[in-house]
Amino acid sequence: MSGGVAPVYAHCNPGRGWRDAGPRAYVLVVILWFLYLFAPIKLITYYLPAARPLSWVPELLLWVCAIQWLRSPIRKRGFPAYTRFMLLLIFGTGVAFFLGNWGMARDTVRQLYQFYLLGLITLTFCNTPERARPILALYFGYFVWYGIWGIISLKTAPLSAYDNPGAREIVYWHVSFDNRDAFGPLMVAGLAYSIYYFQAKRAIRTRADTTWTVVGIAFATVGFITSFGRGAFVGFLATAMSMWLRSRRKIRVLVVVCAVVGAFSLVAPQLTTRYLTSMQTITEEGMHSGTGGDRADLWDVAWREFCWSPIVGVGTNNYGIASGRVVSTEEHTAHGYTQGRLWGRSVHSAPMTILAEYGLVGVVVALLLVADFFRTNRRTRLNATRGLDFPGSNGAGFPPGYVNAIALGLHAVFLTFCVAGIFYELIYTPLFWNVIVLNRMLYFSSGADLAYERGTISTPSNQPPDEDRFATA
Which of 38, 70, 109, 272 is at a distance of 20 to 30 A from 341, taking alpha carbons? Predict the structure, then answer.
């Protein structure tokens, strides 16, 4: 074994698996992840408005699960970086009470606290490989599910019906994914995660697994392209570059990518031309015209709000409300924004949203959260890589190579959201919060936290820790 140090695994009971946590609590956690990821109740209430009371079901079940969590004797897992950000949102609501409209802030906090509470419960009950793997499988299914709706949208909102294909509704029943700015990054993340999930299942892969992962990759690719999201395209470039640098077979990857792009351009030449023409506007328009110029105006107002309240910002989800404090009633911005048109608008940028709404305090808290993700993700991969040559390494519940591949997949997903978030406030969607919880869950369930506490995590002498040893492309 390289490095001469045994890997550390989370404790598990091979005979009982996840049942030693209590079947009702764990099953409820899985059901909650299904409800929050796939959002079936949103779909039902879209078609049956009379069923709107059902929209309370996930939150009520969450509190039932929270009571079981509080009563459970199992050690509670903390998430300090996430807790700090949640406290920041609540503090921002207080700022909005004094400086703006705290009703909008309350609605935002009510949505986001649910992801936080579910995250804490998940870290406690899903602390072994047997309990973590079903959640990670659901996450893969999540991308397939919305990829299917991306295909459906080509029928409900055909590309040919829009001069600007990026303006069409995609997942029309979901408030977060009905637009390209969120759906595009979702599909880029799905493409990356599906590739790594395919590698993670190598040791136990069945024909059904292969079929579903290929379908997931195909749906994510089509969804990404037909979204015409320019922020998603930039996120794709960053993530693809990161994945390529980690691959051992770089030349082969380039050949495969060129072959896929060439085949797609032959099969769908008009779509390819239209897509490339749309992406060219990133450099042609820049920040002077089109949506780039529009964002430049919004970001300029955000900067003015930051200068007006640099320490604590203007309050949670109050960018548009607070614009009246920095834009005069007679002012017209370069792209036609007035005080009235800015009311209720969003910044269309996660970093600028944090800067304007939470000030320097928010910047520090957000940077700590991002740093925590990359730090724990790296520790997870180091612990997994060190154990590759350890006899019986699959006895802890994860198949060989699973942890490293899934950690790389989550890394790619998070990187996509960070880059695409520059052009859209993804912090107010489920995208950002799901992946940081899953990353932390993998950190605990793989035993990387125990290895770190014991000081046994070390880089193997014969293997760079960031190299994807399982890349086959």
Answer: 109
Sequence-separated (6 or more) residues with CB below 8 Å from residue 44: 51, 54
Q: Which residue has the tokens 């050690």?
A: 75
- Number of C-alpha atoms within 13 angstroms, CB side, residue 238? 20
Q: What CA–CA distance (Å, rounded) separates 424 from 61? A: 31
- pTM equals 0.88
DSSP letter string over 241-308? HHHHHHBS-HHHHHHHHHHHHHHHHHHSHHHHHHHHHHHHHHHHHTTTSHHHHHHHHHHHHHHHHHHH
| 149-158 average pLDDT score | 93
Residue at 396 is within a domain: yes
Digit-coded pLDDT (tens) for 81-110: 999 999 999 999 999 999 888 888 999 999
User: How many angstroms separate the CA atoms of 136 and 128, rounded?
Assistant: 12
Domain range for residue 147? 2-17+78-289+347-454
Contact 181, 130 (CB under 8 A): no
Residue 72 lies in a domain: no
How many Å apart are CA 408 and CA 404, to the nearest integer? 6
Q: Do residues 356 and 427 make contact, with C-beta atoms less than 8 angstroms apart?
A: no
Question: Which token pair is 203?
Answer: 């040791």
Residue 451 has which token pair? 């290895």
What's the CA dihedral at 363, 366, 370, 373 to 10 degrees? Answer: 160
Rg (CA), the chain: 23
On whether residue 142 sits in a domain, the answer given is yes
Q: What is the DSSP string of 357-406?
A: HHHHHHHHHHHHHHHHHHHHHHHHHHHHHHTTTSTTGGGGSSPTTHHHHH
Task: State the total domains in the chain.
Answer: 1
Asked if the model's pLDDT at residue 10 lies above 70, the reply is: no
Instruction: Output the CA torsion 40→45→48→51 (10° steps).
Output: 100
Confidence band for 3, pLDDT divided at 50, 70 and 90:
very low
What average pLDDT does this structure show over 247-267?
A: 86
For residue 279, with 0-12 CB atoms within 10 Å meaning exposed, 13-18 middle and 19 or more buried, which class applies?
middle
55-69, 149-163, 309-323, 430-444: range with lowest mean pLDDT? 149-163
Q: 247 pairs with which residues across the strands?
A: 468
Other Cβ atoms closer than 10 A to 233: 22
Residues 6+ apart with CB under 8 A from 215: 144
Please compute the mean of the pLDDT values over residues 164-185 and round it to a whole number: 90
Q: What's the longest Cα–Cα distance across the chain?
A: 73
**Residue in 140, 149, 188 with CA at minimum distance from that of residue 172:** 149
